[in-house]
UniProtKB/TrEMBL annotation:
InterPro entries: DinB/YfiT-like, MST-like. It comes from Nocardioides seonyuensis. Gene3D superfamilies: dinb family like domain (1.20.120.450). The lineage of its organism: Bacteria, Bacillati, Actinomycetota, Actinomycetes, Propionibacteriales. This is DinB family protein.
Length: 174
């Protein structure tokens, strides 16, 4: 196991009550999982693209998930579509690419951006009803569908993170 159950921050809550609490708990679970998968690694390890030919790295996943949080919560749910997408250029590949070698500053910037976007997303979700309709690709979509999409996005990328971490140091699980 990655952590003993009594030390796992994802296991501290009790059973959820209702749809909103259930969805938010799953989203928070996967956000915490991404952080745990990156725990204890330095910039070089975080930036290692360890599943060739893919360019996926743990640092790239953090940057990419900041982009995803930014898009769905700021641009779509809040409706600020004038905001440019993060890491939009071809050379940035949705956050998976950056210039130069990964260093402490790049890692700190990535975590800072991710944390800011997660904090903003939490605020937006706290004040938004799950039944609220927003436009996605020209169709009205309930916010609950976007929360489920975020859970799916994190779950998929946490699976990637598990594989990358295993290649780096053999750690697997949870």
């Amino acid at each position: 196991m990655w952590l003993p159950t009594d030390q796992d921050p994802r296991m501290s809550g009790g059973p959820t009550r209702g749809e909103r609490e259930c969805l938010v708990d799953y989203l928070e679970h996967y956000r915490t999982t991404l952080r745990l998968k990156c725990d204890g690694l330095g910039p070089e390890q975080l930036g290692t693209r360890s599943v060739p030919p893919s360019n996926i790295s743990l640092l790239g996943l953090v940057r990419h998930m900041a982009r995803v949080e930014h898009h769905w919560f700021r641009r779509v749910i809040v409706g600020d579509l004038d905001l440019p997408r993060l890491f939009q250029g071809d050379d940035e590949d949705a956050g998976f690419n950056w210039s130069g070698e990964p260093d402490e500053a790049l890692v700190a910037d990535a975590w800072g951006l991710w944390e800011a976007e997660v904090a903003h997303a939490r605020e937006v979700l706290d004040r938004t009803d799950l039944d609220t309709l927003v436009e996605v690709h020209g169709s009205p979509t309930e916010v609950r569908d976007l929360v489920v999409h975020m859970i799916e996005e994190y779950a998929r990328h946490c699976g990637h993170a598990d594989l990358v971490r295993e290649v780096l140091d053999g750690r697997t699980g949870q």
